[in-house]
Amino acid sequence: MKDMKIYIKKILFCVFLATLIITPTMFVKAQSNVESPKTIESFKVDNTKEECSFTYNLEEATEWMFNITGIKKNEQTIPMSKCIINIEDGTITIKTTLSENDKIAISAEGYRDVTFIVQSEHLFNIAWKHDENTHWKECMVKDCAKRTEEVKHTGGQATCQKKAECEVCGQEYGELGAHNYGNEWKHDGTSHWRECQTEGCTDKTDVAVHSGGQATCQKKAECEVCGQEYGELGAHNYGSEWKHDETSHWRECQTKGCTDKTDVAKHSGGQATYQKKAICSVCKVSYGKVKKEDKAAKVATQIKKLDVKVSNLTMKKISEVQAARKAYNALSKKEKDTIKKEVSTLTKAEILIKQNNCGTNVYYRFSNNTLTVFGKGAMKNCFTGSFTSKNIKSKIKNRIYQKYVSKVVNVVVEQGVTKIGNGAFACMPKLKTAQIQGTLGTAAFWGCANLEKVTYTNGKGTMGFACFGECKKLKNMVIAEGVSSMDRSCFAGCIKLKTIELPTTLKVVGETTFHSCSSLRTVTVKGRVTKCKIFAFYKVKNCKIILKTKAAKKSKKVFAKELKQEGNKKVKIK
């Protein structure tokens, strides 16, 4: 009877197993992901029969064995026809050979897979065991304490809220990490701090009272640590500068955005005159009205202040004389009669200005042996037509400043004068230096035998015929930028002239320009000269024409042609 019951059970189990293989979806999981049996009572390997057997404790494994759905060896499915599952003695027999490190995996419906690796007599579970410091895999055979792959936990990153998680077994281990306070400051009205950035952590550090910064009347102090405004507003900064209107003065707060005022008061002190208002003794601004004065007295004062002499004449003084005349002419006859004495002073000044006029709005002054020409416009020509060395003195003997000609040592032509007239400074026996500008007229400095130094700026147009002719002591010369051409004989007879520099603007070198300049050694050319007229270098020897720039080098043929025409082989082009 007992054998019959066993036989019936086997038939039922086979029917159950066949149904499980053919229609596994018919079974409903009683429970999901239940832990599989942890311990194997024993196992045997008989590779001569090509089989292995695993025996489990029936109290733990009966239901699990009923639900087995598949067995794999090294990821290869073993057909259930090669498996014997005996739930009476808790044995699973698989028709297969086993080698070292073979992996057996058993799946059961509703249970976690159980997987182990065969190593000699041990069956090591692939699931990790662990304690606080290490992890390992244990043998599943009952009463076997053998471990494998036992090492310390590694990897992971601890935070201040959670220990590091081992990258191998997933177990937390070690100590909590340090707080991550970050760089951002938190604050309230009086203090600041930094907070831990780790989620869930409320720890703070660097808690301190706000400090530093400078409060103004418009803004509280800004903490030098966290940048938060704190404390009270500062005092006003009124500064020392006075502000004012026509009647009052005050000092304003210098803080940007503040309009507060202090020391507001009306102007006071000072004494008004006929010409000026009173000056406030506090803020030093003019206020009120000028002292009442009659027009005639005012003009009289204006005339008395005129100080016009040959030595100090300037455009400003000329303007003062003109303004005084205009003011006088505006008076009534009765008012004019009251200041008759002063009119003589005005008249003398006007006569002097007229006598010192040497062109349209151009004048001269003479002081300390220096003749200065100033104003705006061109000087008058001192002669017209041609001249010779014999008649030029007679042509220029009536110059406006003729009485000073024999005393002039220096000539200065100020900016604003556009042209130096014909013969303007010719035949001045003591002239040594000249500071000039503008266009040079015919014979402008001809025959100045002692002229040694010329400073020429702001040139324009053509340098006139023989403008520096017969200046026998002139040694060096730089022609001003702006000069476009040199007329005949500009430097003829300058027997000590050694060097001359031609500007970038010069295009034409005139006929006999350097006639008889026997000491001339270098002519530096900075621009492109398009014409060099005949006998420009007549009687010039041992001289070099230096073509200094790219543009100047294009002048080579022009100079070479002229030298060839006059048959001058002593002048070289470099």
From TrEMBL:
Which PANTHER family does the entry link to? Answer: IG-LIKE DOMAIN-CONTAINING PROTEIN (PTHR45661:SF3), SURFACE ANTIGEN (PTHR45661)
Question: Which part of the chain is the Heme-binding protein Shr-like Hb-interacting domain?
Answer: 48-118
Where are its TM segments located?
Answer: none
Q: Which InterPro entries match?
A: LRR_5 (IPR026906), LRR_dom_sf (IPR032675), Shr-like_HID (IPR011432), Surface_bspA-like (IPR053139)
Name of protein: Leucine-rich repeat domain-containing protein
What Pfam families does its record include?
A: LRR_5, Shr-like_HID
Which SUPFAM superfamilies does the entry mention? L domain-like
